[in-house]
Write a structure and sequence with these properties.
The complex is a heterodimer. By secondary structure, chain A is mainly β. Chain A is 0% helix and 50% strand. Chain A is built from no helices and 12 strands. In chain A, the strands form 3 sheets. In chain A, strands 2, 5, 6, 10, 11 and 12 form a 6-stranded mixed beta sheet that branches. Chain A is globular, with a radius of gyration of 13 Å. By secondary structure, chain B is an all-beta fold. Chain B has no helices and 11 strands. Chain B is globular and about 40 Å long. Chain B starts with a strand and ends with a strand. Classes of the chains: A mainly beta, B mainly beta.
């Protein structure tokens, strides 16, 4: 079926470490792909997105590339900060008014 | 950018009472809004799709008589939790997609606690 699978956390990293959070999707057709971030006690914020194959979304030092051949959209950041501690959700949707389908979320904790 | 305002942010109610959560699109018209529920340390579960001027579409397993959704205008959708029970305690989040837009905007969420 149509779903999103992301690596389970929690992930704990030291400040300035490299971050990768894996995300793969199954879907018929060509979905749009998103990463959302949820800081403690807050709602969801769009971090980045990609709408077609080979697109790279980037924001605040985070990047993710839409890989059709591997059906993946892994999130990366070269040097994490304590302020990046949050829960990260991978999501996909299609055009029109279809809802977002989320992965289970990955909790990231960055320690100084 | 597009803003969705959700109120209240927190609410505590007694068992058996009803609670209404509002979701407003502030600077755009949202013909469709989505309501999600998030359990502690879990992902977001889509509850229903709210369509302006028509009945909401509920996901399997969601009780439509318990979670009443009204989308009476292009800028307002409401979720009413009727006869609330402690197991309804959760974080509820609405989302809207601007007509012709390319992304989804989320409300800040409502933490409901039923005592």
């Amino acid at each position: 079926g149509n779903s999103v699978t992301q690596m389970e956390g929690p992930v704990t990293l030291s400040e300035e470490a490299f971050l990768t959070i894996n995300c793969t999707y199954t879907a018929t057709g060509y979905p749009s792909l998103f990463w959302y971030v949820q800081y403690p006690g807050e709602g969801l914020q769009l971090l980045l997105k990609a709408t077609k194959a080979d697109d790279k979304g980037s924001n605040k030092g985070f990047e993710a590339t839409y890989r059709k051949e591997t059906t993946s959209f892994h999130l990366e950041k070269g040097s994490v900060q304590v302020s990046d501690s949050a829960v990260y959700f991978c999501a996909r949707t299609f055009s029109g008014n279809t809802p977002l389908v989320f992965g289970k979320g990955t909790r990231l904790s960055v320690i100084a | 950018g597009a803003v969705v305002s959700q109120h209240p942010s927190r609410v505590i109610c007694k068992s058996g009472t009803s609670v209404k959560i509002e979701c407003r699109s502030l600077d755009f018209q949202a013909t469709t809004m989505f309501w999600y529920r998030q359990f502690p340390k879990k992902s977001l579960m889509l509850m229903a799709t709210s369509n302006e001027g028509s009945k909401a579409t509920y996901e399997q397993g969601v009780e439509k008589d318990k979670f009443l959704i009204n989308h009476a205008s292009l800028t307002l959708s409401t979720l009413t939790v009727t006869s609330a029970h402690p197991e309804d305690s959760s974080f509820y989040i609405c989302s809207a997609r601007e007509e012709g837009g390319h992304g989804y905007t989320f409300g800040s969420g409502t933490r409901l606690t039923v005592v």
